User: Fold this.
Amino acid sequence: MNLYQDVLLFLPELVTLAGALIAFLFSIANASAERTWAASVFFALLGLGAACVSLNQTGEPFSPGIYRVDLFSQLIKVGLALGLLWVLALCRKPTTIRKSTRIDVPFFLSLSTVGMMMVVSATELLTFYVSLELSAYGMYIAVALHRDDSPAGAEGAAKYVLFGAVSSAITLYGLSLIFGLFGTTFLADIAGNTAVLSSPLFYVALLLVLAGLLFKLALFPFHFWAPNAYQSAPHQLVTFIASASKLAAVGILGRILSLASSDPKSLVEIIFVLSLLSMTIGNLAAIVQKDIKRILAFSTVAHAGYLMVGFIAFTQTGLSATLFYGFVYLFTAFAAFLVVCAAGEDGSNPTLESIAGLYKRSPLLAFILLIAMFGMAGIPPTGGFAGKWFLFSAALEAGHFNLVLLAAINSTIGLYYYLIVIREAYLRQPADDTPLVLSGPYRVAGLSALALLLFTGIYPGPLWDLCHRAAALLIPG
Assistant:
């Protein structure tokens, strides 16, 4: 394969990296934050176009066995590029971020997205680990950039970095065990060695590797950083962590867990317990919260449990359902956090009390919040309903009735606090009648997320077909 073809296969990453470098150069040249933002949005739009163009491309650029471009990786890159573009649209005037560091935000976001794009294509353990770390470093810095340098903010940032470092170390240890077992770092060679794949030590190593990924997904017991980090970090950066990084984690988990799809018995019970605890703890903790960002943080923990319901099937349908739900959650989480960004533009964290009567202050913002809550609760006609239907159906086909029953009960519990948020926005009188006026980028990003969330609920076929074809590359039917 020649260099030109290699560049075409690597085009989404190259364009996004170019956007990061341009933002960095603008920063050191003391360009205005407005100009840096405009250039970053332009490159993010180009990156989305490049990801869409490369959707059906297949190959291994630069070196065979290290980096795989296929429908599975490119589909996720489309979602990551879209998530980056949406979040950058909210960063034109990020008032919750320290003024002196606002110009650096596009660089951190773009660089992190490059790492996420690389890690979903990585088919070699060292490439996988380096890409995983690249996706995290920018966020470690960015979560500490809130304009109010409070002890709570420092605590949230410290927890995020500390948990990230520990999970990274555990992952690296697991990778070393896998290399010791198989004598290779190539996933293709690992998947072909069925004798070692069935050994107990392989499953121990696999669980250690998953630590870093479950941290990104905020699955129990790797979720303790989420409430404090979500509450204290700048709104726009939390939006990125809560949406795009979750889709990336789904993609990485799919590629890694597919190694055990031939004999998953040893992992099924562990995933069952983690999924159940994550759903239950996340939903019960969210009920008593008053801060919207903390509610959404514990909701993220619960949704990580729902995603594992699809993974526990270890089938093509289960992986398809999980990938579909990952995209739906990207749309849903972004829509919910867009409301947080708009309502907390003064730097404060929106609470249940502060969003009272939101429909009078901004009908569009209240409607976005309504559909986002419906999506998280799994109420039609949103994609959340279709996503949970696919997840539960896949688990039932694999014989996991008990987990599906418990997940359905947890969905009912979750419905309670989602309806509380809707009640505050629509049935309470506002303490402040000042209208909330959304800027052009906010409107475009919010309406596009709203459209995709409703479209995937009313007509899920196109996205489901793409997810099913992508999953077939990892787990043949």
Observations:
- The longest helix spans residues 151-182.
- The CA atoms of residues 316 and 475 lie 5 Å apart.
- Residues 3-472 form one domain.
